[in-house]
Amino acid sequence: MSSEDARAGGGGAPRYTHGHHESVLRSHRWRTAQNSAGYLLAHLAPGVSVLDIGCGPGTITMDLARLVAPGSVVGIDRSEEAVGAARGLAEGSSGVSFEVGDLFSMRFADSSFDVVHAHQVLQHLEDPVRALVEMARVCRSDGVVAVRDGDYASMTWYPEYPELDRWLDLYRRTARANGGQPDAGRRLVSWARAAGCTDTSASASTWCFATPEDRRWWAETWAERITVTALADRVRELGLADQGELEEIGRAWLRWAAEPDGWFSMIHGEVLCHPG
User: Fold this and answer.
1) Which residue among 37, 52, 96, 110 is least enclosed by CB atoms within 10 Å?
2) Average pLDDT over residues 224-240
3) Integer Cα distance of 181 and 172 in angstroms
4) φ, ψ of residue 28 in degrees (nearest 5)
5) Exposed, middle or buried by CB within 10 Å (0-12, 13-18, 19+), for 73?
6) Given the DSSP bridges, would you call strands 263-274 and 198-209 parallel, antiparallel or unpaired?
7) Cα-Cα-Cα-Cα dihedral of 18, 20, 23, 27, to 10°?
8) Is this model's pTM higher than 0.85 or not?
């Protein structure tokens, strides 16, 4: 995310759409290498070095560190709050470190890592191609650049709620106003090719929330995220909706979660490639 909102010179995304409210970090903490980086696992082995860009609170990063031990893993994020949470998670662990860093001006030398990974990062950037160029720079020539991003237009659910249609429209409009591309998943191959990466391998995987426990968790996080976070602030700032409508959307999320037939899914695009 994860929460990398790096600026591309004078043209990076002005802000991270989700913000760093506890409801956002709670959502990010659910992510693991298994449920969010399965396409990459076959390319990991003991002794491999990994850079995890936009690491957020570090749950995926910590999984990667366990999979490549005794290799080294570095997680970077623009958010000091997220990095602080990740450092707390890693306390007492070896082979993994976290630091505040900017994707577009990374301190690492060329060809520093075997694997350079970013999960839910490119969708927030005005210049994802430039981001991939920088990721490829710090990746060894025989290494792997790995990116996975959601595709908000692919989100679908049942039963149908008009308030959730409105939620999706508001999110996509806000993300674009912030300089991002919420439907990034389908564009990853194009961006990788434009960045000069080679041997591009594309795939897709899904998140699905259909059990009562999964529905409740997903709905409760979004009921908060659409009402009390930086996303809600930005929606109001842009004049797209008022707080009353956002509260209605939040209540609709909770009603949807209580539906015994409730189901929600979204597609994620995935790309593995090599530096050009």
Assistant:
1) 110
2) 95
3) 8
4) -65, -30
5) buried
6) antiparallel
7) 70
8) yes
